[in-house]
Design a protein that fits this description.
Shape of chain A: globular
Order of helices and strands of chain B: HHHHHHHHHHHHHEE
Number of strands of chain A: 0
Largest interface: A-B, 27 and 23 residues
Largest sheet of chain A: none
Oligomer: heterodimer
Shape of chain B: flat
Number of helices of chain B: 13
Strand content of chain A: under 5%
Structural class of chain B: mainly alpha
Distance between the termini of chain A: 27 Å
Strand content of chain B: under 5%
Number of helices of chain A: 12
Order of helices and strands of chain A: HHHHHHHHHHHH
Strand order of the largest sheet of chain B: 1-2
Structural class of chain A: mainly alpha
């Protein structure tokens, strides 16, 4: 039992370091540069809107950067292991393929969340630098971004169990974009009246709806996110992660690795 | 050595050709085309989830465009202000400052703005619709309605509504009462600009101060015009220059507007000089106001 747990933690560690290496610092550096630029320019150019602009652009950039690195990390999580045959080393230990996938995702999730925490600290520092008091409600927006990152990463990981890292990246990016524009998918029959409604409904329900997790505007304008909504979104994300991880595990268990 | 020669030749060639290319380059107003294509609800769909950040970028562009035209353009055209502000508030309907400053940019007569007060009031009304609890927007809508459209009854009613909103200062109620009593004289306008001069937005403050100076200039022009009319009444001819008026004892010195620029006297009419920053079309030949 202990050896299994130790092996699982080894997978978590592996997932963490793979995600954290290089990418973490690249994303932090990129965001730091952007935050400093927005803080300096916003003050000069915006007619006293520097706080709003820094929050808006800061949160939007946090989301884009974190989701992008989530997609990159997830899309190479399994496929690269298979390509480089490095999983043999891990699987030679007493660890099941399912534990390997789940452990890698857990490690990757920790790395992505640490990355997000770093980005948030940079945003807080930039806000403090222009004399803005940090409000707790910003954390709600960051929580929404964390949900999106986890979802993007797990979907990319599921794709990565089926195909190459590049294809997994492209497919999961397409899912992210479609999930952002889910309203268009829902109303697609207005553009193509002959197409079956069932198809669009299935796509709308099947694709992750990233709009649910977007609390940026509410946080910036100080509106309250109802606890019920927050719990509902958390449950939605948990279910989606469960589905995507199950698909990844099922596929990886049946994969011929010889 | 060959590489150095090639490099030098290429640099010289580039400098020479750049001048030629630029002289033939036809400027297209890409911004107008882009604004026509990227506008309204289309923008919201396009930047789904990132509306606020894109609204900020459009806002920065609006401020830079207006500031650039005001400070540097020889022929000041502000025609992109309206579509730019429209994009900002379509993407972020809660962007209060876009309504406030956008309305000022629109309402001010040229050369400081577009001179479209009705559009300005419409914009503020949209702001009031989007942010019904914002007393500043309601106040600005009332004041603009009074100052630019001359609708004092509705302005006073709107100001009373603004006074009832949370955070509104107590003196708004008094101002509403005063506005309801004022007729076409400049005292009502002066009170409006005095109240706007307390704004925490530098541009609104600056604009209000400029308008207060403009009202001072109007009062001065009217006073000097009375002296000119008196001179004509006594001597039967208009004074040819300020020296005539000074010699007759009607004035002690050459009259200057509040910015220190000499007033203009021509054909018996007193004007604010076009060289003055206070010059406006309504100050040309303002008589007996």
């Amino acid at each position: 039992m202990m050896s299994k747990l130790r092996a699982f933690l080894g997978c978590v560690r592996l997932g963490f370091w793979e995600s954290a290496r290089k990418r973490l610092f690249a994303s932090l550096g990129l965001f730091l540069t952007l935050a400093v630029l927005v803080a300096v320019l916003g003050k000069e150019l915006s007619v006293r809107q520097d706080e709003k602009i820094l929050k808006d652009i800061g949160l939007a950039a946090m989301e884009l950067i974190a989701v992008f690195f989530g997609l990159v990390g997830g899309s190479s999580a399994i496929a690269r292991e298979v390509e480089q045959r490095s999983f043999y080393f891990v699987l030679s230990r007493p660890v099941s393929r399912a534990s390997f996938v789940v452990g890698k995702f857990a490690g990757m999730a920790v790395a992505q969340l640490m990355n997000l925490a770093g980005l948030f600290l940079i945003l807080c520092a930039a806000l403090a630098q222009i004399g803005v008091r940090i409000e707790v409600r910003l954390l709600v927006a960051v929580l929404g971004i964390a949900f999106q990152v986890l979802l993007a990463a797990v979907i990319a990981m599921a794709f990565s169990a089926f195909t190459s890292p590049t294809m997994a990246m492209v497919s999961s990016l397409a899912c992210y974009i479609a999930g952002r524009w889910s309203e268009i998918i829902r109303n697609a029959r207005e553009i193509s009246p002959e197409s079956p409604q069932l198809l669009w409904d299935a796509l709308y329900l099947g694709l992750p709806n990233y709009r649910y997790m977007d609390f940026k505007a509410l946080a910036v304008y100080g509106d309250i996110v109802p606890v019920g909504q927050l719990l509902g979104v958390s449950a939605y994300v948990a279910c989606y992660i469960g589905i995507a991880l199950s698909i990844a595990v099922l596929r990886f268990e049946r994969k011929d690795l010889r | 050595m060959k590489a150095v020669f090639t490099l030098v030749a290429a640099v010289v060639g580039m400098v020479l050709t750049q001048g030629a290319v630029e002289s033939r380059h036809q400027t297209t107003d890409y911004e107008k085309e882009r604004l026509a294509a990227w506008s309204g609800p289309r923008l919201r769909h396009l930047f789904s989830g990132f509306e606020l950040a894109v609204a900020d970028l459009y806002w920065l562009r609006t401020v830079q465009y207006y500031g650039g035209q005001k400070a540097f353009a020889q022929v000041k055209e502000y025609d992109l202000v309206e579509p730019l502000v429209e994009n900002v508030i379509t993407l972020d309907p809660q962007f209060a400052i876009a309504y406030q400053l956008g309305a000022t940019f629109l309402a001010e007569p040229p050369p400081l703005g577009l001179g479209r007060p009705r559009s300005a009031v419409r914009l503020l009304e949209r702001g009031v619709g989007a942010l019904p609890d914002n007393w500043l927007l309601r106040r600005d809508a009332a004041l603009f309605r009074f100052e630019y459209l001359g609708d004092r009854v509705r302005a006073a009613a709107e100001l009373s509504e603004s006074a009832a909103l949370p955070g509104a200062p107590f003196w708004l109620r008094t101002l509403a009462g005063d506005l309801a009593r004022k007729s076409g004289d400049h005292e009502g306008a002066r009170e409006i600009w005095r109240s706007l001069a307390t704004s925490d937005l530098p541009f609104v403050q600056e604009n209000a101060r400029r308008n207060l100076l403009r009202l001072d200039a109007l009062a001065l022009v009217a006073a000097v015009q009375r002296r000119v009319d008196q001179y004509r009444h006594q001597l039967g001819v208009f004074p040819g220059s300020w020296r005539d008026l000074i010699a007759s004892g009607a004035l002690h010195a050459t009259p200057r507007d509040p910015l220190g620029v000499e007033l203009v006297l021509a054909d018996g009419r007193v004007w604010v000089s076009r060289d003055s920053f206070l010059w406006r079309p309504d100050l040309q030949g303002a008589v007996g106001q």
